[in-house]
Amino acid sequence: MASVSATHLIMFIGSLVIASAVAGTVVMEVGEVSDSIEMRGGTVSDEIETDIAIISDESQPDAMVENDTTSDGYNVSVLVKNVGSKDVPADPSAVDALVDGTYSTVTAVERVDADTNTWNPGGVVEVTISTADVSGDTEVVVLVNDDEDTITFYWEDDA
Question: CA 120 to CA 21: how far, in whole Å?
Fold first, then answer.
């Protein structure tokens, strides 16, 4: 009988060791998942709180497009309003742009309604985009924190 008790004791200790190892692994994995959810939640929060609207008049393309004198390309300038609830830096690194589906360089983001580098909710900036070609029907997409707005206009170079 003593041999049965010793066997049960060894099995019990072994099962405790295995259970401890599994519990430790599960606790570590839950911690990592929790951290990932927290990081993703912050990013999603930024996306939800950011909302922009291009307020340039698409019927006035001459006000948006000009020849770039330093290169063979063009500068496209659009007015963009922050209609979200989050401040955005008025900085070219915070804004991306596509012209006719091609990634284009944002050269300037300037506040037109205030003298500050912060683009507050309700604030308006002029986004200047450098692009190689603008002709005919042109689509400009402005992206901020994964939120985007689009303007389409027709422009023909008279030069």
Answer: 51
- Report whether 61 contacts 77 (CB < 8 A): no
The CA distances from residue 158 to 49, 56, 84, 129, 134, in Å, are 41, 21, 38, 20, 12
Amino acid at 87: D
Amino acid at 118: T
User: Is the pLDDT reported for residue 1 higher than 60?
Assistant: no
Our CA angle for 69, 73, 77, nearest 5°, is 85
Cα 42 from chain centroid? 12
Q: What is the pLDDT of residues 39-49, one digit of tens each?
A: 776 666 666 77
Sequence-separated (6 or more) residues with CB below 8 Å from residue 50: 82, 84, 86, 88, 144, 145, 146, 147
For 13, the enclosing helix (H) or strand (E) is helix 2-49
pTM metric for this prediction: 0.70
Kindly report, residue by residue over 110-159, the tens digit of the pLDDT. 999 888 888 999 999 999 999 888 888 999 999 998 889 999 999 887 65
